[in-house]
């Protein structure tokens, strides 16, 4: 059958034929015409699809010399801290920290911790005094941390930080001023109240203060102790000694940090590594070596 015979076929015959598609695009393939609009249609559709697809980019610029400063700047942009790296009130700003157990057979200890402050020296946070805090700040005990911000979706990015280092105990809270700042005024009052109240309840029940998994036998009594402790804190009656018995201020000091940034709009994950300079760092010199671009995996 020649093409002229195809043209004489009626629509009813075309619809009933099991070998021919009745779609409009298929009819253009069967019966080509000289219409420029019809010839240009597939090309226009392809161009429209390309325009709708998000453009992906590949970043190679060095992010900066100091990873802690970059972490602080990113947190400030997200509304977690102020320009000094101090936690803002009523924000959910956390990271995970892990350290090896007290023995080779014990599992690693992993905790979710609230950021309190980011400084050029490290990340400050508080811990309840106990077995976990003692293990965390033990001499030569290696620790690692992880935090993640953002969402993995079109138009946005995920930013993830991992770091290796160690934790060290800072001065006790209260009257002492650390690096020109009274951290007692920075830590949320609810955290102070609950840490002190937990210690008081343990002492009343004759439980070991080192126990990190004490059951709450009488919830109503604990709430009563919390309220009394809150009143004492607001009136300034809590002493420095009581605070020191209940909590400790800890600093995570990193010696290696990595940052991952990526999203659906990027060709690949952007991964950078920083390592602390070894030896003494005279004033005016960088604490960190030049950052190094790493493979994504």
Structural overview:
- With 297 residues, this protein is of the alpha+beta class.
- Helices cover 31% and strands 23% of the residues.
- Strands 1, 2, 3, 4, 5, 6, 7, 8 and 9 form a nine-stranded antiparallel β-sheet that branches.
- Helix 7 packs across helix 9.
- The radius of gyration is 31 Å and the shape is globular.
Shape: globular
Strand/helix succession: HHHHHEEEEHEEHHHEEE
Please tally the helical runs, counting DSSP H or I stretches of 4 or more residues: 9
Residue runs with pLDDT of under 50 for 5 or more positions: 6-11, 13-33, 35-40
User: Helix proportion of residues, in percent?
Assistant: 25-40%
Radius of gyration: 31 Å
Q: Give the DSSP E fraction (strand runs of 2 or more residues).
A: 15-25%
Structural class: alpha+beta
**CA-CA gap between termini:** 60 Å
Task: Describe the largest sheet.
Answer: 9 strands, antiparallel
Quote the average pLDDT. 78
Based on DSSP secondary structure assignment, what is the total number of beta strands? 9
Defining key terms:
297 residues, alpha+beta, 9-stranded antiparallel beta sheet, 9 helices, 23% strand
Tell me the layout of helices and strands.
Elements: H1 3-7, H2 11-16, H3 24-30, H4 36-52, H5 67-77, E1 94-99, E2 109-114, E3 117-119, E4 122-128, H6 131-136, E5 142-150, E6 158-169, H7 189-205, H8 219-234, H9 240-246, E7 247-262, E8 270-275, E9 292-294
Antiparallel strand pairs: 1-2, 1-5, 3-4, 4-7, 5-6, 6-7, 7-8, 8-9
Helix pairs in contact: 7-8, 7-9
């Amino acid at each position: 059958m020649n093409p002229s015979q195809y043209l004489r076929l009626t629509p009813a015959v075309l619809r009933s034929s099991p070998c021919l598609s009745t779609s409009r695009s298929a009819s253009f393939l069967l019966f080509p015409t000289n219409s420029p609009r019809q010839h240009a249609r597939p090309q226009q559709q392809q161009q429209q699809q390309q325009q709708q697809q998000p453009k992906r980019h590949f970043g190679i610029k060095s992010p900066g010399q100091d990873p802690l400063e970059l972490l602080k700047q990113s947190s400030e942009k997200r509304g977690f801290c102020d320009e000094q790296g101090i936690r803002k009130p009523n924000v959910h700003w956390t990271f995970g920290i892990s350290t090896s157990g007290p023995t080779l057979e014990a599992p690693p200890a992993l905790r979710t911790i609230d950021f309190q402050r980011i400084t050029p020296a490290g990340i400050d946070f508080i811990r309840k005094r106990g077995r976990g805090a003692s293990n965390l700040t033990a001499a030569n005990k290696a620790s690692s941390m992880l935090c993640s911000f953002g969402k993995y979706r079109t138009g946005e990015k995920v930013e993830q930080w991992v770091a290796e280092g160690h934790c060290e105990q800072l001065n006790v809270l209260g009257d002492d001023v650390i690096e020109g700042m009274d951290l007692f005024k920075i830590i949320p009052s609810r955290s102070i109240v609950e840490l002190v109240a937990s210690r008081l309840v343990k002492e009343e029940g004759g439980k070991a203060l080192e126990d990190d998994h004490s059951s709450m036998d009488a919830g109503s009594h604990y709430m009563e102790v919390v309220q009394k402790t809150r009143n004492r804190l607001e009136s300034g009656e809590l002493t420095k000694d009581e605070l020191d018995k209940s909590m400790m201020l800890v600093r995570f000091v990193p010696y290696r940090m990595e940052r991952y940034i990526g999203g659906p709009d990027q060709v690949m994950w952007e991964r950078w590594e920083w390592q602390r300079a070894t030896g003494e760092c005279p004033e005016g010199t960088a604490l960190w070596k030049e950052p190094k671009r790493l493979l994504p995996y």
